[in-house]
Amino acid sequence: MIAITSNKTSDERIQEIVQFIEKQGVQAHVSKGEDRTVIGIIGQADPKLAEQLRQMSGVEQVVKISKSYKLASRDFHPADTVIKIKDVEIGGEQLVVMGGPCAVETPEQIDEIARLVKAAGGQVLRGGAFKPRTGPYSFQGVGVEGLIMMAEAGKKHGLLTITEVMTPEYVDVCAQYADILQVGTRNMQNFDLLRKLGTIQTPVLLKRGFSSTYDEFLNAAEYILAGGNPNVMLCERGIRTFETYTRNTLDLSAIPVLKQLSHLPVISDPSHGTGRRELVVPMTKASVAAGADGLIIEMHTDPDNSMTGDGVQSLFPDQFANLLVDLEKLAPLLGKKFDTHKEVILA
Ligand code: PEP
Ligand code: MN
């Protein structure tokens, strides 16, 4: 249930309404908009509460929300959430590009890729130190040492960093080294992990489970939000369909649907979403056209020898750089800003 106040309702009155709601043993979440404030009510409210609120001065409307997720819903929070990390804003006007290898391999590898991501105009360095592999005998990542290598490369080249965390026990150490924590597709419903991520404030990029509905996806985000961490972004990374030509089917519709249902930033991953290098460039552009707030793209200096099988979907550095030049032209047409910081060379 939400209570909507009018633009004339004072902050003091909103506080009185909140206190009244909380006295009934339920939670009140205030979301202040430009011309109205929404008070979201979470918990088993007395059936009489809706009518009592309707009678209160300052309350314009009371609406019952039937969705199972609340804090993730746009009904509860009409304005877009913008996550600010240093000078990067995710979910606002800026288009955010996260680039880098599937896995951190060596200090030299991650340093060189970080240099190339920065030179191309990317803002965030991606790289897995803990890798969720389908088979137990495959390379599982270099672990904590990889976190250190990546943090150093990010700092040296002026990039934020994002890395995957797979278990609640590793959340604190990953948060110590990385700016953004990624929850992989296989862990979208690892509820212990989601609960733990709710206890910190580090931004989380939550990937959609490859067989999950939008409702399940938003409920997974709700676990993190309900724990007290408001810094969640959603990532469409492809779902499993009958098609085998591509590794997954990037569900482009997810982007406008999630933007409609939720206020959280939406990021697209065209690398895992297609599994094929030649499709990453067109699907990146399509994602931006569909309204994505950012992209997470695999790029490698030597994809044929990458330590995970994801070399086949990794862009070469020059492809990555050319793609970002195109995004600089495309972004303004879609109400976004993206700057490669390359100087314009006049003929
Ligand atoms: C990754 O980003 O390298 C990764 C393993 O992603 P996903 O969880 O989407 O498969
Ligand atoms: Mn990968």
From TrEMBL:
The gene is aroF. Residues 1-67 form the DAHP synthase ferredoxin-like domain. Its EC number is 2.5.1.54. Transmembrane segments: none annotated. Pfam families: DAHP_snth_FXD, DAHP_synth_1. It comes from Paenibacillus phytorum. This is 3-deoxy-7-phosphoheptulonate synthase. One of its GO terms (molecular function) is 3-deoxy-7-phosphoheptulonate synthase activity. Keywords: Transferase.
